[in-house]
Amino acid sequence: PPSSHPLLRRPCRTMILVNPHSGRGQALQLFSGHIQAMLTEASVPYTLVITEHQNHARELVRKADLSKWDALVIMSGDGLLFEVINGLMEREDWQEAMQTPLGILPGGSGNALAIRLKHNTGYREHTNGLFCGFLLCKGLVGSLDLVSIHLTSRQRLFSFLSLAWGFVADVDIESEKYRHVGAIRFLMGTLVRLATLRVYQGRLAYLPVTEASKLPKGSIRGPVDSLLPGLDQPVPETWTVVKDEDFVLVLAIYQSHLAEDLWTVPGAQADDGVIHLFYVTAGISRPALLRLFLAMEKGAHLACGCPYLVYEKVRALRLEPISPQGVITVDGEMVEYGPVQAQIHPGLASLTFV
Ligand code: ADP
Ligand code: MG
What we know:
Elements: E1 14-18, H1 27-41, E2 46-50, H2 56-63, E3 71-76, H3 78-89, H4 94-97, E4 102-106, H5 112-121, H6 128-138, E5 141-150, E6 156-159, E7 162-166, H7 167-174, H8 185-195, E8 200-208, E9 240-241, E10 246-253, E11 275-281, H9 286-295, E12 309-321, E13 328-330, E14 333-335, E15 340-352
Helix pairs in contact: 1-6, 2-3, 7-8, 8-9
The structure holds adenosine-5'-diphosphate and magnesium ion.
């Protein structure tokens, strides 16, 4: 990583949150194996918190005295980081709270952000946990884009990874039952879903990335979603409305990797201020869809020349499902089904070891 990155405060007082049930249920074992020794070696003082239930971490960071911590590190999958980010954003002092560097030591079955970190820095031969532990000890800090997502019930969430509907969302949720096999659960889920491939009806619109829609880094810090009208209002004229209404999948992603073997956006940076919007329209054959996912392992899906796959760089988007049933996920977690809209907030969070 470039040396221009600021460094974590020394000594770095670290809270480590572990979800003992993430992935194959080995997060704690991984921790007491190499990570613990590495932190001790690097004289990183830490407090270990083992989560007891869903939203435990979210509630904890919402109320925590953050002056006591220089970094919050989660050891789990993407789901626990999602909890921590949303807990911080629910605080009165969210602006200051979001300056707390967040770290991720992969322990789950979905570790998109951790994979991305490893990938970008050319240490691919190292096992993930060790590598992220190494970076944490080095203490580099960078910034991370977040996307605010509005649901039908007016609830707002903050997302660091993805918003998905259709095929990808279904695989994400259905593959939870294969959690014990680790990251390969996504491939298993994909094969199962291909057998029952369906089309989802809905409307999609987005604000494309242009010079005019550029949001300078740090210009919008926080909750004002200046690009979004109310969900009950029509989208502005500057938006593009997609003509198709029959989709196989819609995926908005703001990191390079959706999962370990899915290098979805080869050019993406954690703080590029861009939502990478992909959609696949109805009519694609099962073999062609499978080819796209297999090509994604090497980031080569866009080079497949598949006419059903569309890729746009956007700042905001709205999705209005018409199909009465379906699944929408945010960072791999299921959310309320119905119209959703989203906008980017460049560099809203701090991330250690970018
Ligand atoms: P994985 O990558 O294996 O899915 P995640 O970190 O995404 O791991 O966690 C999966 C889910 O478990 C998330 O919804 C998270 O909020 C939830 N969770 C966190 N801690 C616990 C716990 N102690 N018991 C049960 N569920 C938890
Ligand atoms: Mg998960």
